[in-house]
Structure formats: structure tokens, C-alpha cells
Amino acid sequence: MVEDAQPCNLYREVLILQHHTDIVRALIKVDDHRCVSAGDDCTAALWDIEDGRKLNVFSGHKLPINCILLLKPEPGSYDDILLITGASDKHIKVWNIETGQCLEDITEHNSSVKCLASLPAFDIFISGGEKLCAWSRKGKQLHQVENPGKADIQFLLPIKENRFVAACEESLYVYTVEYCGDSCEIKFFKHLFRQHREAIGSLINVPDGSFASGSLDGLIVLWSSHTLSAIRQFNQIKEEKEFRGIDNHYPFSIQHMISPEKGCIFAAVGNSIYVFDITKDQGRIIAKKQDAHMSKIKHMDFLYHGLYLATCSEDGAIKLWGRAPAEKNDKDYFMNPLETFTGLSSDKIRKLKKSETVEPCLLGECLGHSGAVQLFVDFGEEGFVSCGGDGLLILWKDGVLQNLKRSQFIGEMTGATQSSYTCSTLTGLSRPIFTGDDDQATLRTEESPSD
Amino acid sequence: MFGGYADVAAYYHPNEEDESIEEHIAPDLLPIYEKPDPWNLRSPIEKDFVLLAEFSELEGPRPVLTIPYGTGGQFDKNNFAVKIMSVDYHNISNNTFTVSDDTQVMILENREGVYAYVHHFTLYDIHARGFVRPFCMAYVTADENKMLSAYEDMLNEFSKVSKCFSYANKLLFLKDIKHHIKNLEHTKECLQKLEGEPPKPNESDSTDENDVLSELTITQVESMIAEAKHIEKVIMPLLTDKKMELKLKQAEDRFFMSRSMDFEEEHEREEEIVQEEINTEEKKEDVNCIKETPRRKASVYSLYSDYKPCRLFDETREYQPQILSSAFFRKKFDKLLRNLHELCPWGSHNALRRLRCIQRYFSRDLATLQIEKEEGTLIDPAAGLLTIGRCVTLNFMQHSGRLADGGYGMSLPSNNLLRRRLSEDTLGSFNSSESFYSIQDDRESVHSGVSSAAEVAFIYANSSHCDEHSPRNRYSISEADDYFVINYKEGDVYEPPKARERYLTGSSAGTSSERSFTTATDISFGTDVDQDLYTTRRSFYDRAISMDSNCTSDDLISSSPTDLESNISRKVAVISAADHIFSLNSSSIGHGILKVFQEYRCSPEILATLLTGRPLVVLGGAKDEKAVTAIVTALWLFLPGHTIPNHAVVPCLSKPKQIKMVDLAHFKLLGMCRPERRTSSPLVPSSVRNYVSVLDIERKMLTAPAYKGHIIKDIYKQRKIFKTEDTYIPFVHCELLELATRAFIYYHCFCQKEPSSFQDNDFAHPLERANVYNMKSTEFCDTRLSVHPGDVPVIEYLSEIVKMQQYDEWARCSYSDTLPTSVKLDLRECKVFKA
């Protein structure tokens, strides 16, 4: 056999989706086979990720689009999915995703729109920037509150049905939504006690009823969603000189965090990957990869049903991490992302000594973008889509699976394969190892093969 | 030369005074008599040619032109014209006007070694005797077998030419007849008026009009009207080819539009081109009109200068009837009649171009013709075609045709031989646009999927002159040359807007979106490989620029790249291996391959790179353009695939841009010269470095995966047996065919059967599935095809090409827009080889 430089990397085929002419900053999964991208070229586009077709283009904004949001129709209704785009031109637009039609053009925001969040319980969405606004699905302004902070709101995170957190520089503010009939009111609830010394870079929900915030100085704070008090702090760097680094580089800054399951947070700390055990007070580090990238990691997530932990960075690379290639006859299949990632069972992880950290193995490197890779979205067997500063969307596909699909497709076309199953059977050919939900990693794998 | 029938008759009588004439001539002026060698009789024809002859009312049979110019120098064309024109011509005798069919004759002159296919056709001319102008086209060759075996094809092709001529001619004739009827009716009215009035002899302006009226009677005029109306009735129903009409109309419109161009500059340029055309036309053909009287010569090819081309389709201006001119009823046939161009307005160019193509096609070796004819069946269905080095190698779907049945718009085998060979544009199947291509037409066909991506055509590998005479195309080729000059010689910065403008002249493009389309159409005019090279280069540039310049001009970026792709993809030029071998020359694909092999010990790795679908970048110093281009041309021989957006070859970029991921989807073989001033960004950036092989000719280094198979090594080793490329390249073709047949088996027995074994959910882990698949593939190749594991990627890639084509074909027909091309990422480990 010919030596393969990356035997564990399945992504061996790419489709290059060309549309954007500037940095693509936002990418969002619509359903199992579609995604929306938006960026600094003031347009958004809907893509079919099975074959890379551009399905729709949403253009109308005059300045770069900062944030996008999908409003799913209420269960049981036949409405189309709505796409909300918020841009620097102070407009919020509501689009029908299927037709590409702009349904509403909201101008009342009056400031650059930085972030959007939906509160499905009330069928409303909120936008953040200089101030906070609540909007009905139809684009009607329901309420507006001033932002106590000095800067624009950068993140919005719904933490409970009627409660959400807004991050503004290093401060966190909690708001409640009161909704009755036609009127809806956003009420300032609490200013969370100041923990962060620098701007917050990531704000996420953690499966066990808490949320976490990470900031430029490297500090990660875990908050309770109920009591709104800080539960734990990790990665505290005391010296300002240290966290600022040379030339204000902030080597420990938290750009992104994910919490795929209870009890752990994966964080992009500077150029490195850290996995924190959040069940213990001091925040033991389960796994760590120092200097995983040449520059700061912008986004991280699990791919291919947890087969890989992928990180993308300003250096233009997407790296796939996991445990070292399995030995022969090693047919252990792990139950959750952390186990798959570390190659250790939960028990073993628990028993790890404090000084012991697992170092993940580089399984593959997806190079293709010629600028920083902003983020990516996983589509499981269909591959994943990444977007970057070069204006490209790259759709990474499992080469062997594509090959098989094509063969099968052509076999069916030409009638050589006398089988009745369709392409979709192949798509669902491999059992997912698990699917990570927001609340809990649901176990879907059956027993591993006996032999 | 011939005054009339009498002369012709005299010509045929053995001249008794021949000897006496010779006596009067000084012996040194007489040709030296050589006794013909009976074993080595040489035909007077060195190269096949096409002769167009007419039966002139003044001169009798006379040759009009030969294609190509200058052929048949030893051959007595006058004599031959007399011979072929006297074979036929009978229709005149009929009293009533009928439209005669073309007649075909095969002339076999064994004694002289001259064989000809003769195609007679009749054009109609209101000024001619009996309204007919007999013409004939002859394909003259020295090869009897060719004549016999290609008769059918010739008949087909010449009939099409004849149709081109006669359709335009009939349109004109009908118009003339209509005017004639109006004239007659006007004359009749005048006569009737005259009858009422008494004659006024005193006012004797004995004008022609009065003369005419005095000589005519109403009954005479009436019978003439009846005759003309009969002719109108006969001609009318024949003019039903709307497509042809549309095309002629477009040509006419374009001509007049370019004439009335507002911009002076444009006008000047147009003039220039026209001037150029006249020059070339005259050079190439006019001189051929043997023994022309000066006056005749002036009038024959005056189409562009003083001749005002008649408007066939101008319905706006009402015709002003005139009293019949005396020439008409006096029937004095002493006037110079209209020439071919005037007789067939707008149609003659097209027809002559077809004739040139016919000549080029049939003038090749008989064996080549026959092999090519056989291989012609390999082209369909196009999606199943595998080519290596642009040569048709094998069709994976031949005779199965199932995809075609599936209604996915696969092109069905066409009987049009030349169309296959010369691409739809060149010879212009009637639904295509050829030189009179229309923007709309192209667009339509993109969307209707009639001639979709896999429109494959045989094409001359190295005939950069293909269609050089056609006005538009000539122009674009000359522009292409210009472009090359810019890049190669002067090293100017590439200026897309300028180039774009150039392309626009003479076309009817209006808005900017249309403009970009025009450009695209021009570019996709892929009539030969050189043109394709150019095409690819251009699109490569466009793309590179579009990525770099961050969208400065909307026109360029927003629409053109995709348009380019969709348009280019439809024109595919492939050649048959036979033709490739027949016409090997210094610009052929594969030329210099032995030299490359000699120079680079790592050649097997280079070839393996190409044959596994890994893009190869040939990198040279700033002054290595020639060397880089030469290597690219040589290596092209081993490059599988022919669809232009996916398998493009770029000979050499002297002002290269950094390679982007997008480019990987399009080129497979790319020549580049490092700029003289080193820039900070490398030409092959890290984002693509893993996926391409780089042959650095400056440092004599190759970065590529190691090759461990046998097949390519064998091909490489065998070079020692063959001393010259003339013999080695046919060997390579054989070896590649062998390789392709293995891929064929792999495709049918592995690819099409294997997915079913992956149906069961045995593979909880995707990695495991990949491993099992690779293992099975290797095992199949080993046991069934006895292919070494090192060669498996080659086999896999060859079958993958076909699969991709089929999938693309299907996708293109299912969705009208093009899908992004998928790029295979080759993650094999690279090594550095010293050449």
C-alpha cells in the first residue's frame, strides 16, 4: 500500500462553494442537508450540502451581516423556516428561507445589530447591540431596553424559558421576559458580579443547568442558571502581565467553548485545547493540547458523530483530534464524546490523577482555506462545512463514502446494481456513535459487535 | 479560357496541329520529356483538395477556387473542370421551371491516378439563362480506396455544404423574383397607359424605358408574369428551414450593425479586420481563380469593399418597382453574372468554411480515417468516455446506453461525422451557432441540456488554423495570439477589461451581463486544442483575479466565472489516437516526452501523479517559460480526462498568482514561472501544498508521493526500445489502452457491485468502512486484474473519472445550474525526488 499521510482522516473530498466575496462570519445549520452562510459581503446564501448547490441568495443589506438566526415554525404548522439577519447597517431582515423572499425589513433597531437570540417559548426573538430589543415573529417591535453597559452587547444566551444573559465587554447582565398577550416586556434582572477582567469571548450553556462564560484573560466562570451565582472558576491567571502577554496578545484568551456533556467543558484557550472537568472545584484538566494551532483557535466542535474533535484557527487549518489510532482488534466503542475523544472510559477518567492529563492525537489536518477559518458546522455523514476569511465555504466530504455513493448511484442509473435501496440507505449506513444534545448526550449506539 | 460550347467541343477534338506547334517553339522552352516510369506512376495530385467549379455562360466550365490554396499545382484544373462539368447539365432544357436536385458522381481516372467525388448543385440567378447557374464541388484525391470507402461520408458532408449555398441562394432568388414580378406588373401598367395615349414621337427622349415599352406587348409581359409567378410558387415551399434563416439573418444583422457602429474606433477596427480578411481571402483563394479578367477579379471578391451586400431580411423598405430593363427580355447573355458570394449572401462563408473542414478531414490518411470512424462510436455516450492525453481511449458505457435511456439527456450517437470531429461550432450543425453564433442560442442550449457538458468532438490536435478564415473566429484567434504575446513576451500585467473589450467588437452584446456572456462564448469557441489551452488559461486567470482583487468590478466577477465554466464545459475537444499519431508534430500533445524521460529519473512518479488525478505543478524560473511549456505539452500525453473545468491544462503562467483551493478543482497540469522578484507569498501555499505534486525544473526536484507500482515503470522502461517518439507514442497509446481496459473491468465489476456489500450495517465506525473498502479494492485489483497494489490508485482514478462524468451529466440535467466540482484530496505522503 501507498503511505497515507493521514490514515485516520476521512475527509478526502471537498466541494468549494463559491458565492461570498468577503469574509464569511456566520454559518448555521438549517436541517440535515442545508446550511446558511452570511458574511461581510452583505449577503447570505442557502446551500444544499449534499451536492454543494446554492439554493438561495439573500441580498439586501448594505453593510456586513453580523449575525443570523433561524426561526423554526411552530410544531404542526406548515410555515417555512424564517431566517433573521442582523447587520451593521442597523437593519434586521426576516426572510423566507425557501423562497428567498424578504418578508420584513426592520429598521427600528437603530444601531448596528451584533447578536440575535430566539426565545421559542414566546415565539419571539431578541436582538442586541447598543440596546436590547424584542421582536415578534412578524417583525413587530415588542419592547426595547437600554443596555446598562457602555459597549455594545456581543452575546445573547437564553438560559431558561424566560431568562437570558447578555454579555457586554466583561459584564454579564441577566434579563427576564414577561409576555402576556400582545405585550412583552424585557426586564433587567441582575448584573452578575464582576469576575472577568477582560471582554467575554464565549458564552455557552452547560448541560446540567448552568452556563459558562470565558474571557480574554483566560478565566472561565461557571454560573448556575437558577441562582445566577458563580459556581466555579477555572484557568484563572492572576497576573495581568501574564494574561495580557506580549503586545497584548492575550495568549490565554477563551475564543470558544463547548460542553458536549455533563461535567466537562472543552475550551479553546489561545492556541491550545483544554478539557476541564467541571465537577471538581479546582477544575482539573482532563486533556490538554498545548499549541494545537499556530494561532488562536476560533471554533471547536465534534464532527462525524463524535469521531473527531475539530478545531479551526486563524492559521487557516482545521485540525481533527482524537485518540490515537486503535490497535488491531480493538473494537471498543465509546459511549460519549469525552470517552471517544480520550479513549478512556468514564470510570478511568474519574480515576485519573490530578497530574495526569490526556494528550489528544492529531488525526488529520484539513487544509484548504487561504485565510483564517471562522467556523464550521457538522453534518455527520454528509461531512462538514467550514467558512473563512477567503470568502469560501468548503464542504468536506468522506471520500470513501462519496465514492460508494457515486458507484451506487451510477449502478442504479445504469441498472447494473439490481438493488432496490436508495442512496439514502447508504447515507444512514453507519450507525451514529452518539448524538450530542444540548441537555444530554443521548446514547444511540447499540452493543458493539461481539467479535 | 473557354469562350463557349464551341471551344469546349474543340477542346475535345484531338488537335492535329499539336505537333506543328511544338515545332515552332524553341526546344529549351519545351518541357523535358520524361518517360513515365510504369512502376512508379505518380499522380499529379500531391495532396487532396476541393475544387469548386461553375459553368459560366461566357466562358463555359471554369474552376472557381481550390481549397486549400495552392494545391493541385501539377494538376490541370481547367481540363478537370471541363470534364466534371460536362458530365451533367440537362435541366435547362425543361420548359417549365423546376428545382433540380443535386447530383453526385464519382470519377475514377485510374490511368492518371485521379479520383474524385463530384457534387453538382444548381444555384438560381434571375439574370442567368433559364435562371440557373450550374456549380459543382469536387473532392479530388489520388487515393482510390479513400474515395471508395468515404463516398457515403462525402456525400453527406457535401450535401450539407450544398444546402448552405442553395438555401441562401433561394432566399435571394425568391426576393429577386418578387421584385421582378413587381417590375413586370409596373411595366404592364405603363404599357396599358401607353395604349390609351397616342404615341408622342416628337418628344423623342428615346430613353431605354421607352425603348422597352415600345418593344413589349402586354401579352408578352403577361406571360412573363405567369412564368415568374410559377417560379415563386415552386421556390416558396422550399424555404422552410427557420433555423438556417435565423442564422443567416443574424449574420446579416451583425454585418450591418458593425457597419453602422457609432464609435469611430470600433469602425476603424472593423475596417481593419475586413481589410485583413480581404487580404487573406485573396491570398488564399482569389489567386486561384485562374485566368480571371481583371474586371472579373475586381467584382468577385468585392464583398467587403464596394459591394453593398443586399439585405435578405430587410422587410422595412418597400421595393420601388421599375420598368423592366431591356437586358431582361432581350436575353443577351453577355453580362457578367453575380459571383458566388453575391449569389448566396451570408451563406457562402459558412459553406466555404465547411468545405475547408471537409478538405482537412478527408485529406488525412485512409487508415486514420477508418480508425477514427470506428473510434467515433466510442464518443457516445459522452459521459462514459475516458480519454488520456485528450485521445479517446475507451468508452465505459459503450453499447449499454442505459443512461441515455434514462432520459438524462445523454447525446445519442450522431451520424454526423464531421460534427463529431470538428465540434459543433466549427462545422456548425444547424442548431448551433458556428461563426454566426448567437448569445441566446448558447444560453438556450445550456438550459435545455440539448448539447450538455459532455458534448464531445474530435478535433485536430494541432491545427491552430482551424477556421482561420471565418471572420469572427479568425478574429478571436488573432486576439488569442495577441494575448499570448502579452503574457509571454512583454510580460505585461494582465488586463482583463481590455481583453474583454476586444472580444466585444462586432458582437451584438448590449448590457454588461450579455457582455460577459459574449466573452464566454468567444472563449468557449474551443475549436482546437491551442484554443483550449488559451481558454483554460484565461479562465484560470479570471478566477485567480476574482479571488484576489476582492470584487472590484462586478461585471467581471459576479457573472463571468460561472458563465465561463458552464460555457467552456460544453465544448470539449478530443482526438482519436490514430489522428494523434498521424499528425504528430512539435506542437502535439506528448511531443518531447522522451526528452523529459531522459532528463528526469523520477518520471514514473511524475506520470503516477498525473494518472492518479493529483494536480501537477511544473515550476520554472522566470525565464523558463519555453521549457515549462514544453514539459507540460509532453506530460499532457499521460493526463486522463478531458472535461475542461475539471481537467484543464495550463501551459505556462508567466505572471502566476498563488494557487487557490478553487483552482484545484479545475486544473490538473499547470505550468508556472516564478516571478523575477521574489514575493513573500509562495506560489504553492500551504493550504494546497498537501494536495499537489510540484516539479521544480529550476532545482530539478519533484515533490510527489512515491510510486511503487509496475505499470508506469514498465511504460517508462520500454522507452529504451523505441528510438523515436513516432514509435514510442503509439506504444504509449497501447499501454494506456491496456490500463483503461483494466479500469473498465474495475468499473463494471467492482464499483458497480461493491456498494451492495456495504449495505449491511457492519461498520459502526466510518474509519473501518474506509479501511475495508480500500482493502477490498486492492484485493480485487490484485486477484482479478493482477494489478500491483501500487497501481490501484491509477485504476481507481480512471474509473472515478467516468463516474464523475456520469454524475455530473446527471446533475447537470437535473438541475439546470452547474454544481461545484468536487476536488479529491490526495493525502498520500510526499517525498522529494532529485531528478
Short description:
The complex is a heterodimer of chains A (451) and B (835). By secondary structure, chain A is mainly beta. Chain A has helices spanning 240-244, 337-342, 346-351, 399-414, 423-427; strands at residues 11-18, 24-31, 34-39, 43-48, 54-59, 65-71, 82-87, 92-96, 102-106, 115-119, 124-128, 131-136, 141-146, 155-160, 163-168, 171-180, 183-191, 200-206, 210-215, 220-224, 230-234, 254-258, 264-269, 272-277, 285-289, 297-303, 308-313, 317-322, 361-367, 373-378, 384-388, 392-398, 434-436, 441-443.
Structure write-up:
The complex is a heterodimer of chains A (451) and B (835). Chain A has a domain at 201-326 and 336-367: 7 Propeller (Methylamine Dehydrogenase, Chain H), CATH 2.130.10.10. The relative contact order of chain A is 0.12. Chain A has helices at 240-244, 337-342, 346-351, 399-414, 423-427, and strands spanning 11-18, 24-31, 34-39, 43-48, 54-59, 65-71, 82-87, 92-96, 102-106, 115-119, 124-128, 131-136, 141-146, 155-160, 163-168, 171-180, 183-191, 200-206, 210-215, 220-224, 230-234, 254-258, 264-269, 272-277, 285-289, 297-303, 308-313, 317-322, 361-367, 373-378, 384-388, 392-398, 434-436, 441-443. In chain A, 8% of the residues lie in helices and 45% in strands. Chain A is mainly β and 451 residues long. The longest helix of chain A has 16 residues, at 399-414. Chain A is built from five helices and 34 strands. In chain A, the strands form nine sheets. In chain A, strands 1-32-31-30 form a four-stranded antiparallel sheet. In chain A, strands 2-3-4-5 form a four-stranded antiparallel sheet, with no helix packed on it. By secondary structure, chain B is an alpha/beta fold. Among the domains of chain B are: 49-169 and 345-349, no CATH class; 577-834. Chain B contains 32 helices and 16 strands. In chain B, β3 and β4 (114-124) form a beta hairpin. In chain B, α5 (151-196) packs antiparallel against α13, α20 runs parallel beside α22 and α30 (725-751) crosses α31. The longest helix of chain B is centred in the N-terminal third of the chain and has 46 residues, at 151-196. The radius of gyration of chain B is 32 Å and the shape is elongated. The relative contact order of chain B is 0.07. Classes of the chains: A mainly beta (451), B alpha/beta (835). At the A-B interface, β1, β29, β32 and α4 of A face α22, α28, α31, α32 and β15 of B. β1 of chain A pairs antiparallel with β15 (822-824) of chain B, so a sheet runs across the interface. Chain B: One of its GO terms (cellular component) is cytoplasm. Chain B: GO terms for molecular function: GTPase activator activity; guanyl-nucleotide exchange factor activity. Chain B: Residues 40-803 form the UDENN FLCN/SMCR8-type domain. Chain B: Belongs to the SMCR8 family. Chain B: Its main location: cytoplasm.
